Amino acid sequence: MTRVTKSGDAPAAWLFDFDGTLVDSVELIMDSLRHTTRTVLGRVVPDGVLRARVGRPLAEHMRELDAERADDLVAVYREHNMRRHADLLRPYPGVAEMLAGLRGRRARVGIVTSKMRPAVDAGMALVPLGEFDAIVTCEDTDRHKPDPAPVLRGLELLGADPETTAYVGDSPYDVRAGRAAGVHTAAALWGAFPAAVLRAERPDRELARPEEALAW
Fold first, then answer.
1. Domain 13-25+90-215 = CATH 3.40.50.1000
2. Which pTM value belongs to this model?
3. Which residues have a catalytic role annotated?
4. Which residues of the chain have pLDDT under 70?
5. Domain residue limits, the chain
6. Which of 37, 140, 152, 196 has the fewest CB atoms lying closer than 10 Å?
7. Alpha carbon distances (Å) from 81 to 29, 31, 34, 65, 86
């Protein structure tokens, strides 16, 4: 069942995941993961295994792939990923318009991502998204999605009430973190994860396209 805000109105504050939600970085991430595992591990890891962990901090992902070589995996990934940003990062149709519409309503808008801040800055330099009222990256909390800590930090920076805030993301970790933080959750179906995976998390809303956020 879809929850509604206390007043029945659209959320007054919005938090968004970054990769796969605000920017089309799916191929950038997968290209970087494939290169990294081939280079460091000397083997091909199936895409399904690599994709399943997208949305969590890079270091955690790499420790699960190979705990002993995690540091090497992280270093190779970051170097390759930053070098390939300009080639593979793309805007999602409708995201800029969605953000402009929310800002036009005086909604507070923020980012909550497991990405490191330099990579977020590099992404927004290539895909301009305007000014955000809060940005929470991997460096800002000791615990990470699906733990609610990053979303709670976003709420704190926005000065927002969970009951009137939505968190939009394309991974099951986003939905779990948002639910644990007490905000309204919206699954971005245009991102890295299949709709069935996101529906299994029972988000409060499903958004097939970015502009559907404006019809909340």
1. yes
2. 0.91
3. 17
4. 1-8
5. 13-25+90-215, 26-88
6. 196
7. 7, 8, 11, 18, 10
Spatial separation of the C-alpha atoms in residues 105 and 174, rounded to whole Å: 24
Cα radius of gyration (the chain): 17
Enumerate residues 6+ apart whose C-beta is below 8 A from 97: 210, 211
Tell me how far CA of residue 112 lies from CA of 118, 137, 175, 205, in angstroms: 14, 6, 12, 18
> Peptide bond before 91: cis, by omega within 30 degrees of 0?
no
The length of the chain in residues reads: 216
Geometric angle at alpha carbon 186, from 48 and 61, rounded to 5°: 35
Q: Is CATH 1.10.287 the right assignment for the domain spanning 26-88?
A: no
Element (H, E) at 100: helix 95-104
Counting beta carbons within 10 angstroms of the beta carbon of residue 207, is it exposed (0 to 12), middle (13 to 18) or buried (19 or more)? buried
